[in-house]
Design a protein that fits this description.
Number of strands of chain A: 17
Strand order of the largest sheet of chain A: 2-1-3-8-7-6
Distance between the termini of chain A: 58 Å
Number of helices of chain A: 16
Oligomer: homodimer
Structural class of chain A: alpha/beta
CATH topology of the largest domain in chain A: Molybdenum Cofactor Biosythetic Enzyme, Chain A
CATH class of the largest domain in chain A: Alpha Beta
Radius of gyration of chain A: 26 Å
Largest sheet of chain A: 6 strands, mixed
Helix content of chain A: 40-55%
CATH superfamily of the largest domain in chain A: MoaB/Mog-like domain
């Protein structure tokens, strides 16, 4: 039984949403640890002491995030000393880590950093590869005779995540016997949650009792997570995979990947594997497709670049789209998005091009072309195909949905081409 | 002192992020109620009873969300009866509300809805205009002689929000005299948390006791939040603003904005206000600067577009950068980023251009130009200025920090130009 304590005034005035708790809970569940309670408290000594005592009395594992940064509102470390009845001692290894990190970046080490290398004497330090504050692992005997593990981590999400994944969860798994839990996530694009639920209702209702389904919708994507729990790892894997195969036969048109993959990773892998190149010609997505593609390490092997033609003058002068075409059909049209794709394909000498033009909103809609109207073109060595979509009434989500739809169209196009070639 | 209890298994497996808590905390703070703790628990009777008892022993107001829907896992209402030692009684008014709502939507009333109209006998019902479950307001004497107010609300966010805004907060304000609370957040860029803390330590230590400071770091940005508490609204505002002014004199070079603003919003407002235009020439940021700029509604008024020149061939063929310059200085150099900026300024006829070239990583670093090495150029009507940075060892954060640094350089450049013009 795990309890999570998140320390931070910013969480109690609503300035920051507590995404740390949900991420920690999800990762713990994936590893077979059940979270019993999440408690959010202020950066106050008495409050921290009280929460530690309450959590320790109920749970065998208490994970704490927040309050160990270098600034003076961070009192967690001193309070932990009080709770565990010990003193801070200077830790040379922790200080060397910080010095190395700062030396690599060319920063000077400050007195604050030296103070951060002081750790409670009866804790085991947990390395922090991404920040200056070490994590702290304590064990405390409980009145019943067992031990409770307390782990203190930074509140900065990427530091906490690296520490959880790299150390805390592996160390906990060495100490506790957990049931086998096997997760498989099927990634779908191009269908909303309620339509998807209706299409797979029969399959969902027939799932065995020890395999549960969760819908995890995000803008433009619905993830379907199957969670199986059992005693025998091999049997469990086979049972879950059998359900995945049934789903693949039921909705092949929506599935683009599995588990933690992203569309931009999958597309990148296919491009790298086939030795082909990509460029983008973006209007409504404003560079977001290029950003997704280049967020993947190694993308310079297959991504040539992009023209973001946000204004019509750029479509005309930089991409050479005929002003008459824009005047006749409008910038959001099959004709313009096709011309944009072909122009970038020629200029950038790219095998594939994604082009987008749409009305992301909130302004710009008309009765004929309301907000959310979007054209996407995919140029390939075979030619160019444009498709039309009507997305929603949120600018952010329209940009995101357009980009994901475009990447999935590209994925299908390349895969279809490969299948053709394999058949020849 | 308020405590929030959120009930729901979905919050403890990480499937749902607890946005209810942050919204409730923000609204309460804006009304002068301080939230002391947020507790997330499962849909389990013992756990709910325990959390209610603990919260009631500490706080005068306990707000509960979740667990009062129509499905069988929703046991909150029965547990509340146990806690307050009373029975459920049928409430005709509550049932009429549900019947009216369903009649308007053309739905039949079910036996489940009839059960939902049963309320604990010693509570005051709170109308729910958007759903079938009423809220419940209880008052319970505490051992010290005072009273604790417990309010149970739905977990569905829009139902809870309407109930909080329409009833719960107004009723609480009638019952409690609340201090004024005033928040001001100062946004900084270009400095890490520990360096910033060292620079403002004197100011921070001299803050009056009723004004507190919190550091809220994000990749590339550190937000400084001042929270003042006092009896007189006007005096409190002036006191907090005086501290903000002192800070503005101390670190003007880092401050780019206030409260909930983003750099892309601020830059957009300045461009729109001065009637000038922007384009970008991006290598290492891969379209991310363009994406940030175009994430703002109305950006088509000032953003012309971008060339993402990810490969050297695009820098040469599309932007016309001299291949000899790239060969001599490398793509990540003052010379190349300057040439990129000028080429796009000319091609796009833009007043301002942001150009980026860097080694985002993880590959591509050398001893002379390690990962994180970045050049940013800002072209303006006055010419072009390039600056050099050494960011860190995370690809995502290098992209983000480069983009934020570039937007802030642009903001300073435009503002400096305006100041010059005003002086002429």
């Amino acid at each position: 039984m795990v309890e999570i304590i998140n320390i931070g005034d910013e969480l109690l005035i609503g300035q920051v949403v507590n995404t740390n708790a949900s991420w920690m809970a999800e990762q713990l569940n994936l590893s077979g640890f059940r979270v019993n309670q999440v408690t959010v408290i202020s950066d106050s000594r008495d409050h921290i002491l009280n929460a530690l005592a309450e959590a320790g009395s109920r749970s065998s594992i208490v994970l704490i995030s927040g309050g160990i940064g270098p600034t003076k509102d961070d009192i967690t470390k001193h309070t932990l000393c009080d709770f565990f009845n010990c003193s801070l001692v200077f830790n040379q290894e922790a200080f060397d880590d910080v010095k190395d990190m700062f030396a690599r970046r060319g920063y000077p080490v400050t007195e604050l950093n030296r103070q951060q290398a002081e750790l409670p004497e009866n804790c085991t330090g947990i390395p922090n590869k991404l920040g200056t504050a070490r994590g702290m692992w304590f064990e405390k005997g409980s009145p019943g005779g067992g031990k409770t593990i307390f782990v203190s981590m930074p509140g900065v999400p990427f530091e906490m995540k690296a520490m959880m994944t790299g150390y805390v969860i592996p160390w906990l798994k060495q100490r506790f016997i957990t049931p086998f839990i096997f997760h498989r996530t099927i990634l779908t694009q191009g269908v909303g949650e309620s339509f998807l639920a209706a299409e797979i209702a029969g399959w969902e209702n027939a799932l065995p009792g020890h395999i549960r389904l969760a819908y995890l919708p995000q803008p433009g994507i619905v993830r379907l997570r199957l969670t199986g729990t059992g005693e025998d790892e091999d049997i469990l894997h086979r049972q879950v995979e059998r359900e995945v195969e049934k789903l693949e036969q039921l909705i092949p048109q929506y599935i683009f990947g599995y588990d933690g993959e992203t569309l931009e990773e999958i597309v990148g892998r296919i491009l790298a594997g086939t030795g082909t190149t990509l460029a983008t010609a973006e209007s409504c997505t404003g560079g977001y497709v290029a950003h997704l593609v280049t967020s993947i390490a190694g993308s310079s092997a297959y991504f040539k670049g992009s023209v973001v033609a946000y204004s019509n003058s750029i479509k005309e002068q930089v991409l050479g789209v005929d002003p008459d075409t824009i005047r006749q059909y409008g910038a959001v049209s099959r004709e313009v998005v096709t011309a944009m794709a072909l122009a970038v394909q020629r200029k950038f000498e790219a095998d594939y091009v994604i082009a987008t033009s749409g009305i992301a909103g909130p302004g710009g809609g008309t009765p004929e072309k309301p907000m959310g109207t979007t054209w996407i073109a995919i140029a390939s060595p075979d030619g160019v195909v444009a498709s039309h979509y009507l997305f929603g009434d949120s600018r952010d989500r329209n940009i995101r949905r357009t980009a994901l739809q475009a990447l999935n169209l590209l994925r299908k196009k390349i895969n279809a081409g490969n299948a053709d070639n394999a058949g020849n």
